[in-house]
From TrEMBL:
Keywords: Oxidoreductase. This is Predicted dehydrogenase. PANTHER family: BCDNA.GH03377 (PTHR43818:SF11). Residues 5-118 form the Gfo/Idh/MocA-like oxidoreductase N-terminal domain. InterPro entries: Gfo/Idh/MocA-like_OxRdtase_N (IPR000683), Gfo/Idh/MocA_oxidrdct_glycsds (IPR050463), GFO_IDH_MocA-like_dom (IPR055170), NAD(P)-bd_dom_sf (IPR036291). It comes from Microlunatus sagamiharensis. Gene3D superfamilies: Dihydrodipicolinate Reductase, domain 2, NAD(P)-binding Rossmann-like Domain.
Length: 374
């Protein structure tokens, strides 16, 4: 066998990370890049040594491309992924899988009928930080998980982004921009979500650009800039999640799982590495006893790479006939959870999540991104 041919559609800023990392994996080879802007595709191909460039259609028509990496804007994810499936290609899509619940679910049916696979970001779930933490929970270091807490709060991307309006428009906001990291992580650890309840708010109806050529101009806020979500999982566990672009206090990457025999803090779900540690219950407190709880550190095992791990896991899983970790089903369930939360915030009612997903597998113990296995 030989490396699997990969094509990339959409070569914006994030494509640099993908191209650099994919070039370091012996099991894949990027053969073509495509973009709506021909000069941008040419520039990225020359920069990263990719032999072919052109439009998205050129990538789909390339005979050596077996898997397409969809790095287009979120509003184009469904269309591009569907076109790639029609062309007989496996697809890895950046998050979110789509912005429409029915259309995202239809992609799964289309892929199954075509005999191809879909993968969906985030692939931070494949990083050694999260994988080591998940193994520790599976080994019982906190007993049976009971509930979880997550938080992402920031002053907002308008503080630094030269064109932040799209991050406050329909299809974005902190829920759909950052939610995929947190809800994918929770589902991977606690299983599928049964129902959600949420409340949302806008701190203000308009915000101002603070940097770049348009500094000083304002733009509308179309979606809640702060949302709090309660999730009830099919297995009986629960979680509460805060996602905010309105907080003066910067707190990123809070992910805690509390169980019958301890509590564990996990790495930032938007990162591939980070600290994992847990504490055990205090027991019965008596006069004079210390209430300090010693942290037990979890050793992180595995190579730290970055975006592109999901593509690598897909091609190896296809060859081995095993499920891949960041699957289309997981991406679809995350979309369903987030859109259900959006609906709940608008109706002030619990909303039943319509989709489900099977157990999310761990990477093989001997997974080495830099080995040649195909």
């Amino acid at each position: 066998m030989s490396p699997v041919g990969v094509g990339i559609i959409g070569v914006g800023v994030i494509s640099d990370t993908y191209l650099e990392n994919l070039a370091s994996f012996p099991d894949v080879e990027v053969l073509a890049v495509g973009d709506l802007i021909a000069d941008r595709a040419r520039s990225q191909a020359e920069k990263h040594g990719v032999p072919a460039h052109g439009s998205g259609e050129d990538v789909l028509a390339h005979p050596g491309v077996e898997l397409v990496v969809n790095l287009t804007t979120p509003d184009a994810h469904i269309e591009v992924t569907s076109a790639a499936i029609k062309a007989g290609k496996h697809v890895w899509s950046e998050k979110p899988l789509g912005l429409d619940r029915a259309a995202a679910a239809a992609l799964l049916e289309q892929a199954e009928a075509a005999g191809v696979r879909i993968g969906s970001a985030p692939d931070t779930l494949l990083g050694p930080g999260f994988q080591s933490a998940k193994r520790a929970i599976g080994a019982g270091v906190i007993g049976e998980p009971l509930f979880a807490q997550t938080a992402f709060q920031t002053q907002g991307p308008d503080l630094w982004h030269p064109n932040p309006g799209f991050l406050f428009a329909q299809g974005a906001g902190p829920l759909l921009d950052m939610g995929p990291y947190y809800f994918s992580a929770l589902v991977s650890l606690l299983g599928p979500v049964d129902r959600v309840a949420a409340v949302g708010m806008k701190a203000r109806e308009e915000r101002q650009i603070h940097t770049g050529p348009d500094a000083g101009t304002t733009f509308p806020v179309e979606v809640p800039s702060t949302i709090q979500v309660l999730t009830a999982f099919e297995g009986g566990t629960q979680a509460q999640s805060l996602l905010s672009f309105d907080s003066a206090l910067e707190r990123h990457g809070i992910l805690e799982i509390h169980g019958t025999d301890g509590s564990i803090v996990l790495p930032d779900p938007n990162q591939f590495t980070g600290r994992t540690a847990y504490v055990k219950p205090l027991g019965v407190l008596r006069d004079g006893m210390s209430v300090e709880q010693p942290w037990i550190e979890v050793e992180e095992k595995g190579a730290v790479v970055g975006r592109g791990l999901g593509v690598l896991d897909m091609v190896r899983s296809i060859a081995a006939g095993r499920p891949h970790v960041a699957s289309g089903e997981l991406g679809n369930h995350a979309v369903d959870i987030m859109l259900s939360a959006q609906e709940s915030a608008a109706t002030e009612q619990f909303v039943k999540v319509r989709s489900t997903v099977g157990p999310v597998p761990l990477l093989p113990d001997d997974f080495d991104p830099f080995a040649s296995t195909l």
